[in-house]
Amino acid sequence: MDDKNLMQDILMLEKGVCDLYMHGTIESPTPNVNQAFKTALNDSLCMQDDIYKKMQAKGWYQTEQADQSKMNTLKQKFTNMSAQG
Fold this sequence. Notes:
Distance between the termini: 51 Å
Radius of gyration: 18 Å
Structural class: mainly alpha
Number of strands: 0
Shape: flat
Oligomer: single chain
């Protein structure tokens, strides 16, 4: 396995961990448990961001600029939905 594939696997695992911690935070029954999940989620989000930045720096994680007209259309759609709300 090459470095790129290894980093992709690590990033996907870290995203899965973030998802689990997010649900733990939402569903936690007590303030202490909630805080523990929040702390773990924040730590995992920071790790995910570090991994992403390293992959992007090596050209292993490509992103593309969103089309501004599509963003404006979506913004208008959701603005109209909330106004009708």
